[in-house]
Design a protein that fits this description.
There is one protein chain. The protein has two domains: 91 residues, Ribosomal Protein L25, Chain P (Beta Barrel); 91 residues, RNA Polymerase Alpha Subunit, Chain A, domain 2, CATH 2.170.120.20. The longest helix has 9 residues. With 210 residues, the chain is of the alpha+beta class. The chain has five helices and 13 strands.
């Protein structure tokens, strides 16, 4: 995705407030060999851009002063209740330096799996995004996962997924996390549960001696 940014001369709370009133969003670009640079963006254009998944998970092309550079969205500050972007941060991308980024997981095909089609199982997407490490050129916009081979009672783990070339997943100490779980229909679970034992009848009381 491509967007246009403009140089921002002034900083501070007052200057940022005046920018927002005029329909602009203050921001900053940092990283790489260059110095941090203050920028501003058209808020309406930015508002439409942040609704797109790719704006959050892919390398962006920023046009500034007639030159285009590659950046990543790193932080987005929103107003607590207004539809307003208060501030935005971008990081410059170095083509030869590995980066770490969260990318969404797109699941498909579960409705055609034996677990759903034949056994009427419930499929739960436990993980909807993965943190990956790769070179900028290898960064995927998303990771596609085919669920058409799901089977009853068998969960899908990270090691079951073919990752794009050059991409590694950062698991933070969990070597093979569960991405998707498959559970039996509720009625089967109820049938499998042992029936509660009926209470034993109380012993009859003997007649006392008169």
């Amino acid at each position: 995705m491509k967007f246009v940014a403009f140089e921002r001369a002034k900083q501070g709370t007052g200057a940022s407030r005046r920018l927002r009133i005029s329909g602009k969003t203050p921001g900053i670009v940092y990283g790489g060999e260059g110095q941090p640079q203050l920028i501003e963006l058209d808020h309406n254009a930015l508002w439409h851009a942040i609704k797109k998944e790719a704006f959050h998970s892919s390398i962006l092309e920023m046009e500034l002063n007639g030159q285009t550079s590659k950046v990543l969205l790193r932080d987005l500050q929103m107003h607590p209740f207004k539809q307003l972007v208060l501030h935005i941060d971008f990081q410059r991308v170095d083509a030869n330096t590995r980066l770490t980024m969260k990318v969404p997981v797109h699941y498909s095909g579960e409705e055609n799996s034996g677990a759903v089609k034949l056994d009427k199982c419930l499929v739960n997407h436990i993980v909807n995004e993965l943190q990956v490490s790769c070179l900028p050129a290898d960064l995927p916009e998303f990771i596609a996962v085919d669920l058409s081979e799901l089977k009853k009672g068998v969960s899908l783990h990270l090691n079951d997924v073919a990752l794009p070339k050059g991409v590694k997943v950062v698991t933070h100490g969990k070597p093979n996390p569960v991405l998707v779980s498959v559970t039996a229909p509720a009625e089967e679970v109820e049938e499998a549960a042992p029936a509660a034992a009926a209470p034993a009848p109380a012993p009859a009381k003997g007649k006392g001696k008169k």
